[in-house]
Amino acid sequence: MDVAHELLALLERVAARTALPRVRGLLLPPAAAPSSIAGEFCAIELDDGSLGLSYVLLDESTRRLVAERGDASLGLAGADALAVARWFGEQPGARRALGFAAINALTRCLFDRAGFVPGPSGDSIGMLAPRPGDHIGMIGLFPPLVRPIVQAGARLTVVELRSELAGEGEGYRVTTDRHALATCSKVIATSTLLLNGTLDAMLAACSGARSFALIGPGAGCLPDPLFARGVTLVGGTWITDPGGFRAALAAGTPWTAAARKTAIRRDDYPGMGALLARL
User: Fold this and answer.
1) Which of 34, 98, 234, 236 could bond 223 through an S-S bridge, CB–CB 3.0 to 4.6 Å?
2) How many whole angstroms separate alpha carbon 174 and alpha carbon 163?
């Protein structure tokens, strides 16, 4: 079973134990949002205030969702949240992204009801603690994350889909060959791997990695199937001020003041069974 359907199966278990909230609405960044994280994510909000984020600039259909907008609610207000979540496993493009946001919102709902609060993240690079002699793998070139790794004296290999980025950088190498990850001891990637369906292939390419951190605002789903596959840390975004977040997202301005970065380590996570028992 792929990750999408495993996540949905877990949420079905939640639905069998407790009534789930419905969708309150879809929150989109403005079409003219600056080219920054402030304009890259949408959110699904549930009736209980739970919020789940998803990247919305992955492909042309998700970009159109933001640019054209149309009926910004897409008829989602009042919808069955689990039915929308199923889009992640059944629909392509924009609907898949919205399904992922619904999965993340339902996960936040479960965490809140079970009294589970993820711990804080110690840094922006998945707490990999790079050191001289480490070979770090990065899936997707994220310049802000390159500097702390290179400055720590670690060797960095970046795997990119865009061939025009391939080549030697200052202290790192960019390649389109995912097999270059085989000799990496630690790997960092974003939750985009879940949206584009490449997580399993990338994990298979990281056979030598003892640490695999999956991070980003969209990394808000239940981590159980990720940990079972070899992910060792999931670093997401925990909304602490829903009103402030809504206002900032709508304006296309940074919403960092309304949220905090979290880190769930595989060895510290109680697991789905324990969360269900707390309901």
Assistant:
1) 234
2) 9
CATH class belonging to 120-215: alpha beta
Q: Which two tokens stand for residue 218?
A: 């969209």
- pLDDT by residue (tens digit) across 211-236? 999 999 999 999 999 999 999 999 99
Rounded Cα distance, 62 and 67, in Å: 9
Each domain of the chain, given as residue ranges in start order, spans 3-117+240-258, 120-215
Q: From 259, 249, 257, select the one nearest 36 (Cα to Cα).
A: 249
C-alpha distance across the termini of the chain, in Å: 26
Amino acid letter, residue 2? D
Whole-model pTM: value is: 0.95
Percentages of the chain per state (helix, strand, coil), in multiples of 5: 40, 20, 40
